[in-house]
UniProtKB/TrEMBL annotation:
Residues 2-90 form the ABM domain. GO terms for molecular function: monooxygenase activity. This is Antibiotic biosynthesis monooxygenase. Signal peptide: none annotated. Keywords: Monooxygenase, Oxidoreductase. The keyword DNA-binding does not apply. The keyword Oxidoreductase applies. It comes from the Bacteria. InterPro entries: ABM_dom (IPR007138), AI-2_Isomerase_LsrG (IPR050744), Dimeric_a/b-barrel (IPR011008). PANTHER family: ABM DOMAIN-CONTAINING PROTEIN, QUINOL MONOOXYGENASE YGIN-RELATED.
Amino acid sequence: MIKVIAKNLFKQGSIENALSLYEELVEKSRAEKGCLSYELFQDIENPCILTMLETWESKEYLKAHSESEHFKRIVPQLGKMREQHEINVYAKIL
C-alpha cells in the first residue's frame, strides 16, 4: 500500500479556482483502478493550505495515476497558483 501526502500553500485569492480544479481531480482520481482513497483537506488556521491524502494499492497504480489525462492537465494548472508545495510518498511497512 502506498500513501501520498501532498501539501500545498496557494497564493492569496486563488483558493476558489484551486478548489474548482480539485473537484474534477478528486472525482476522476477516485474512479481510477487501484485508488483506495483520495481526499482533500483544508487547514483550519490557514485556508490557503490544502493537503491531498491519497492511498493507492501499489506504486504501479500511483504511476498510472500520474500519467492520466486529468492529472497531466490539472496539476500544472494548480502549480501556477501555488507558492509552496511538498509531496511525500510512503510505503506501508507495518
